[in-house]
Please model this.
Amino acid sequence: MDDRLAIRDVVETWANARDSGDWEAFRACWHDDGYMMATWFQGPKEDFIRVSQEGWAKGVSILHFTGGCRITVQGTRAVAQTRMTIMQRGEVDGVLCDVACTGRFYDFFEWRDARWGIVLRQPIYEKDRLDAVDPAASLVLDPDLLARFPDGYRHLAYLQTRAGYAVKPDMPGLRGVEVDRLYARGAAWLRGEPVAP
Model:
């Protein structure tokens, strides 16, 4: 139980620290070789911290809400699956919009240097929606651009693409080959096998 509480604390600190700009607390959630996978970024944790800081300085508004957490511990390794919602605000074709994407953080944890830290964070994107902040605003989405992305994060990707980000088109969703591969990687991690980004 102590391990699970410590892992849960890291999961909650990650969201709180990132969204409030507490970069040292955010950095402490990771191991040195930590790797982040997201729709708009894939790379080492230090690069992710840097681009998060840059976005923060420019006023990029991304918030993370966490819910229930299921943790499997096997020796010095663990996998945590945490319900989450990503909320991002930005302009889409001149209309201020909010997007909400619900899914799970799927985290590869390891006990090293007397602490649990994230080795790999791979979100699973299950469903999303996009709304104009002003309900009276008129918003027409480009159906071809919308169709380029999976159902689980279609609207999030749309907003991020319009904001100038290159969005990865094959992230895991609720069902499908990508999430099946992720579960297999998690099982291999718990057996002691290495995990590559």
User: Anything to note?
Assistant: The mean pLDDT is 96.
